């Protein structure tokens, strides 16, 4: 509205009517957000429908591997009970055996399948130790084991591991209060090169992060070349003024192929977020500075970044992480934390 017309409008139209007009304008503006919201939720739900393991079960190798991990971890968990029931969950055993046979025919027994086979052997040995011999299961396992191409280098993982309280105490006896307090979001980086071995070590440490049924859906993309970092960071608006100083830019993602039910529609954000935090702390423990870069974006930008750097549609981007060495002295935001009474609720 032009200034003169606006003055006339104020003089002529009563204040109550002006308020109604402003309210209608505000409601119209808010209503225009509804289609955008629907489009973004449609993007998320269509990706989950297409890429998860809910509807098109085990229709590629990644989904099939995820199913095998889910099933054999169900065996491991029960074997880790104080007093597991003898010959427990026969339906899980048969499901896993059937899936392993199908997987072996299509892809061969890789490390994941061998882990499952070892878990089944642990199950058989547990029952045998309790005077329950399942000869049919044993023959099935031997038949599958005979298909391993290189038995000398076969994995020995899968099943359960005996540990002592003392061993856990000794390994975990650290004063983490100062460690947590010393982590800051770093926005000043030294120009030194970050050795890729440090990043690899941090990712390996983060792999111990819990995930639903040990499915380990997380993945890390590492960008080192200046042109690649610049391209990645151009899609993220919160790094202006410091992002170009980072020696490495990481993207943490979580693959929807690892999730099997509608109830798990948001699990990628939980598993991926926990993994990202573990990775940040792992990098911190190795003396590197990090800054988590938010990726709460609308679907067009999400789709554009994936296309630009080759991230699969099935992978949900959790966040970016800027990584670099610390300068000798730097400034950090104080970022005061809430009072503990506002955070912890004791029932």
Short description, anyone?
The protein is an alpha+beta fold. It has helices at residues 3-12, 15-31, 33-51, 61-79, 90-107, 111-129, 135-145, 165-172, 176-181, 196-206, 226-233, 267-285, 299-309, and strands at 218-223, 248-255, 288-294, 315-325.
Which features does this protein show?
51% helix, 13 helices, 347 residues, single chain, NADH Oxidase, globular, four-stranded antiparallel beta sheet, alpha+beta, 4 strands
Task: Describe this protein's structure.
- This protein is α+β, with helices and mostly antiparallel strands.
- Helices cover 51% and strands 9% of the residues.
- It has 13 helices and 4 strands.
- The protein has helices at residues 3-12, 15-31, 33-51, 61-79, 90-107, 111-129, 135-145, 165-172, 176-181, 196-206, 226-233, 267-285, 299-309, and strands at 218-223, 248-255, 288-294, 315-325.
- A 4-stranded antiparallel beta sheet has the order 1-2-4-3.
- The model has no long low-confidence stretch (mean pLDDT 92).
Reconstruct the topology from this structure.
Elements: H1 3-12, H2 15-31, H3 33-51, H4 61-79, H5 90-107, H6 111-129, H7 135-145, H8 165-172, H9 176-181, H10 196-206, E1 218-223, H11 226-233, E2 248-255, H12 267-285, E3 288-294, H13 299-309, E4 315-325
Antiparallel strand pairs: 1-2, 2-4, 3-4
Helix pairs in contact: 4-5, 4-6, 5-6, 6-7, 10-12
The named CATH superfamily of the largest domain: NADH Oxidase
Structural class: alpha+beta
| Biggest sheet record | 4 strands, antiparallel
Kindly report how far apart the N and C termini lie. 56 Å
* 3D shape: globular
Order of H and E elements: HHHHHHHHHHEHEHEHE
What share of residues is helical?
A: 40-55%
CATH topology of the largest domain: NADH Oxidase
Tally of discrete structural domains: 2
Q: Could you name the CATH class of the largest domain?
A: Alpha Beta
How many beta-strand runs? 4
Please list the strands of the largest sheet in the order they lie side by side. Answer: 1-2-4-3
Number of distinct helices: 13
Return Rg in Å.
27 Å
CATH architecture of the largest domain: 3-Layer(aba) Sandwich
């Amino acid at each position: 509205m032009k200034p003169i017309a606006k003055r006339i409008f104020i003089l002529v139209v009563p204040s109550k009517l002006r308020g109604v007009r402003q309210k209608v304008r505000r409601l119209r503006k808010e209503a225009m957000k509804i289609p955008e919201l629907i489009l973004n939720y449609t993007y998320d739900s269509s990706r989950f429908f297409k890429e998860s393991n809910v509807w098109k079960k085990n229709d590629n190798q990644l989904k099939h591997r995820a199913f095998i991990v889910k099933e054999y971890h169900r065996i491991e968990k029960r074997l880790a009970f104080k007093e597991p029931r003898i010959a427990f969950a026969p339906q899980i055993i048969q499901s896993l055996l059937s899936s392993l046979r199908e997987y072996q025919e299509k892809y061969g027994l890789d490390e994941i399948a061998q882990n499952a086979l070892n878990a089944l052997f642990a199950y058989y040995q547990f029952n045998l130790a309790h005077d329950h011999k399942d000869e049919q299961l044993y023959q099935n396992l031997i038949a599958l084991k005979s298909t391993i191409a290189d038995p000398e280098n076969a994995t020995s993982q899968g099943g359960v591991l005996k540990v002592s309280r003392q061993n856990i105490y000794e390994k975990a006896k650290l004063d983490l209060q100062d460690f947590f307090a010393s982590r800051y979001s770093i926005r000043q980086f030294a120009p030194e090169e970050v050795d890729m071995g440090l990043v690899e070590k941090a990712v390996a440490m983060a792999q111990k992060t819990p995930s639903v049924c040990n499915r380990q859906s997380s993945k890390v993309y590492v960008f080192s070349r200046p042109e690649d970092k610049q391209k990645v960071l151009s899609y993220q608006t919160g790094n202006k003024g410091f992002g170009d100083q980072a020696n490495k830019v990481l993207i943490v993602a979580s693959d929807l192929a690892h999730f099997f039910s509608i109830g798990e529609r948001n699990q990628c954000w939980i598993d991926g977020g926990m993994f990202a935090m573990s990775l940040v702390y792992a990098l911190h423990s190795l003396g590197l500075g990090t800054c988590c870069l938010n990726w709460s974006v609308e679907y067009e930008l999400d789709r554009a970044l994936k296309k630009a750097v080759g991230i699969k549609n099935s992978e949900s981007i959790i966040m970016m992480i800027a990584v670099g060495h610390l300068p000798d002295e730097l400034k950090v935001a104080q970022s005061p934390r809430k009072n503990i009474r506002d955070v912890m609720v004791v029932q």
